[in-house]
Structure formats: structure tokens, C-alpha cells
Amino acid sequence: MKVQMTPLEEIRHSSSHVLATAVLRLFPDAKLDIGPPTDTGFYYDFDLEHKFTAEDLEKIEAAMKKVIKENQKFERIEVSREEAVTMITNFGQTEYKLSRLRDIPEGEQVSFYRNGEFLDLCAGTHVNYTKKIKAFKLLSVAGAYHRGDSNNKQLQRIYGTAFQSKDELAEYLEMLEEAKKRDHRRIGKEMQLFTFDSEHVGPGLPLWMPKGTVLVEELEKLAKETEFEAGYDRVRTPHIAKESLYLTSGHLPYYEESMFPAMEFEEETGGEKVRYFLKAMNCPHHHKIYAAVPRSYRDLPLRLAEYGTCYRYEQSGELMGLMRVRSMQMNDAHIYCTAEQFEAEFNAVNEMYLKYFKLFGFEKYLMRFSTHDPDKLGKKFVDNPELWLKTENMLRDVLQASGINYVEVPNEAAFYGPKIDVQVWSAIGREFTIATNQVDFAVPARFDLEYTTSENTKETPLCIHRAPLGTHERFIGFLIEHFGGDFPTWLAPEQVRVLPISDKIADYAQSILADLKAAGVRATADLHAEKLGAKIRKAELEKVPNVLIVGASEAEEGNVSVRSRFEGDRGSMSREAFLTDLIETIQARKLQIKE
To answer: What are the tens digits of pLDDT across the range 159-188?
Structure first.
């Protein structure tokens, strides 16, 4: 089946084929797997005994430029399945390409693309000639399991990027350099926010250090205050549950590969062995809380919220700092409502997202509205065409009425209903998916969830799954990059540091520190016998937002000299005035951006 790509996707897709062409010229023994375009570039997976190095990437880039200069034509070839086997065999790439050929459904068109001496099984599309590729760059090499399965052989994946112009490429590469400086793993280590111990604790299981725990608790405080104002009730659920709970929800057996292996216990009564799972999602537990007491239409909407810890067995090759972990705390809530209440509830959730975006300074964001594929009802999606149509139309109406920027993406809904994935761009222009908002019209019925209507009949409620702040781990990872570690004062692990010029001023510094702590401010005093310049430099490196310098004149007048990471040198002011201003800044959760 021919796939029509955008012009940029075609450039990136064609770049991956040029990459493979160049690799085969330099390394004829390389076996090829796949090479698709991505949101940020392209990659190709190779099976080769030789391990690619940085020097190899330079040579491959040079070879790619030669291929582009040759202005090879991209030619589409449509063949029968039998002819495809022959072509793959003659090209000498049977190991992975025949496996990929078997993925193509019977009766569907099989196609190849040829450029010069290179041939690849491919649905397309591509640029017409290689000279259309005007700006590309190879970026890195990483390991990647064949088909993403750790039981398969690990291949070498070469990543690259390509753009329609050299200026766009230069801008992207500059953003990547800035991203390295703001890498949450590097900043997290420097600021002592979190750590990992793969050997003894396990990969993908973060350990929050005291300063990182401040971030966690401030976000929880924010969420709890916001949700309290919006009429949510807080609940708590256990970290494990019986297999039967997830069979009822439908997560088993379909989601089992993403869950930690079952634990088997012998029940105290009857001696029967029962399987328990670490929970990978909070929804089934919340459904049980809803079902614990009879519900009336007067009880709805019922909004149940929890910062629940979930566990997902992500493949080791996919783990990445806080952005991809196996243990996560989720800003989760489930709203049970009637069809008539749905629009207002869903709109209120969107308003909550917008409130958070403004608070954190997210200027660019997009809602990805994922819908179902009618041809996959009963396979990938719950077989209820009427409810799919109804709920998708309701979501579409809410999004259009809100004026929120969104795109519609077919065939990416959850199995139980349409969903919205929230994408935001950091201050340096990198795109992240940080939250989700989903409609569930199927699972409540599986749990026999009901409410009594005003006509004294029984109805099944709709359920909205929402997590505006996503998980602590992913959201904080994003915030570290977004702010570059320079968190606004309300969020900063250490909000104020007092620096006395000499030992003689230590008592005055201590009295200021006592006032700050009494007001609930996270503050320290640096009383070490070091020069003031060294103390200031240390505070800057540790990204403390407010530094108070005190000497003899400040002590005599009851003042402090204020240096702010966001406003620079604020001069001298009374300690009372500084504290009043500081408390106002913290309580208002004022957005502060370091230029």
C-alpha cells in the first residue's frame, strides 16, 4: 500500500535510503533491517560485526554526499509476492527483509524503491532525485533490538536528521547543542535531584534525593490544591492487585508484556495459588472504589484523584533517565459522569491544562486527538461503532469550541475510547508528550459500574481518564530542560541562600535564616570560611534563585543585599521588605525565566 508522506517526511525517508546505500558501499557485509523517517529525522538499523564509530559516521556522511551528488532517481517498483522474494534474494538481504515481507498482508501491494544500485522493500514515498536532499546530518549510533524485542538480536541504529534548508538544519543542530547543556540527567546529577542504582535497586527505578523530593512535593501540592478547587476527591490504592482485576479491565492479556511478571501466592484459605501483579495503571482500582457503594445521578460527576505509583516493564534499551522509567507516580484522576455532563467535564479538564501551561510558561502546545479505525473494531478497538461515533464527536465539539490548537490522528485511540495526548515544546523548542486525556465508554461496563437515573433506571457512566501533569518523573524531566535547572522561586529546592561577608556577621546571617525558615522558606546560610566571591560562584552553580549578601552595613541597618538569578542585582533593602516580596512571589507561584 502506497503511503503518501509530506515533503519533509519524503526528504527524511529518502535520506535513510541514501544512508543505507552509503553503508553498503563502505561495509558490503552489512545486513539491513528498516529505515523509516521520524518526527525529528530518520534512522536505519544495521546488523554488522564491525561496531560503528564517530569516525565511521564521518565517512558514511561523505559517502552519502557522493550519492546525493550523483542525483540518483528514486524509482517505485510494484511486484507480486513471489517476485519480491526473488528480488530480495538477488539483492542479498534475505535475513531481515524476508521477515518484513511477511508482515505485508496477503493481497496488499508489495513495492520496492530503487536508487542507483540500492534496492529496498518500501511502501514509500520519496523525493524524485537524491539532489532534493539539501541538508542532512548523521547524529549518533545506538543499539536497537530487532522489532524492539530484547529476545532478538541487537542491531546498530544510525540516527540522522534532515531538513528542507540548511538554515533549518543549523537551527535544529543548535537546539540539540542547547539540549545537551540542559540534559535533565546531567543537571539532575549536578543539582543532586535524583539518582539511579541499576545494580542493586534496578534499572529505570529512580531514587529521589532531598532536593528532587522538593520538586515532587511542590507539584503534588499544586495538583492537590487545583483539584480540590475543581471538586475532586482524593483516594489511595495499593501497589498490587490480583490477576482477576486486570482480566476484568481488559488490560490482561493484551498489556501483559508491559507489566512486571506476576507474583504467585498461596491463598490462606483453600491453599489455592493466586497471581498478583504490580499495578501498571490506576483505573481498575478507581473503578472498584466507584463500585463500592450504590451511586445515583445526584452523585455525579464523581471525580477521584490519586498520585498513584505505577510500574511498567519498559524494555531496558528504551529506558532514558526520568523520561522513560519503570516506576512512576502519576497525576491520575477518573471522572465518572453522565453523557449530559460530559462536555462540561471534558472542557473543565482542558481548562486545567491551560492553567498549568500558563503557570509553567509553556507557550507552544498541541492536543493530538486520537480516533479509531472502523476497520479494526473488535480487533484493536472495542466493537461499539455507535459509542465511538458519539464520543469522538463530543470530543471534537469540545476542542473546536475551546479554540485549543489540535490535530486529529486516526487509528491511535485507546482500545476503550478516543484520547487526547498533550504535546508541549520546551523553552529550547524540543517537543514532548507529557500528559493524556481519555474517554472510556467500554471498561465501566466491564466492571458493572452503574448509577440510578432520575427515572429510577440503571445507566453506565462515562469515564474520563486525565493526568494533566503526567508522571512526576517525565514532567520533572521536562521541567529541568525547560527551565535549565533554574526553577522559579516557588519550585526551587533551595529558595534563598544567605552569605555573610565575614565570621563577624555570622550571627546576623543566622537571624535572617531563622526568619526565613519561620516563614516556611527553604533557605540555608553559607558560613564556611571562604572568600565571598567563591560563595557567590557556588550559589550560582547550584542555581539558587535568591542570594542575600550581608556585611557590617547591612547588619547595622537591618538590611540585605539581594542578588536574583532572574532580575540580577536588586540592591539593598530591608529584610522585612525582602521577606514580604519573597512570600508574595512564592504564594503566587510567579513565573520566572532566566534570560
So the answer is: 999 999 999 999 999 999 998 999 999 999
The pLDDT of residue 185: 95
In whole angstroms, what is the distance from residue 71 CA to residue 14 CA? 12
High-pLDDT (> 90) share of the chain, %: 80
Q: Which CA distances in Å does 336 have to 185, 233, 309, 348, 541?
A: 38, 12, 21, 14, 47
Beta bridge partners of 433: 423
- What domains can you pick out in the chain, each with its CATH number? 7-164 (3.30.980.10), 217-239+286-483 (3.30.930.10), 241-278 (no CATH), 496-587 (3.40.50.800)
Report the relative pairing of strands 496-500 and 523-525 from DSSP bridges: parallel
Cell of 322: 526520568
Dump the DSSP string for 343-374: HHHHHHHHHHHHHHHHHHT---EEEEEE---G
Work out the burial of residue 375: count CB atoms within 10 Å of its CB; fewer than 13 is exposed, 13-18 middle, 19 or more buried.
exposed
Query: Tens digit of pLDDT for each residue in 40-66?
Result: 999 999 999 999 999 999 999 999 999
- Taking each helix axis as running N to C, give the angle between helix 94-103 and helix 81-91, from 0 to 180 degrees, rounded to the nearest 10: 160
Report the DSSP beta bridge partners of residue 437: 420, 466
Look-up of cell digits 486527538: 369
Q: What is d(CA 192, CA 201) in angstroms, rounded to the nearest whole number?
A: 18
Nearest-angstrom CA–CA distance, 557 and 577: 13
Q: Please give the grid coordinates belonging to residue 439.
A: 474517554
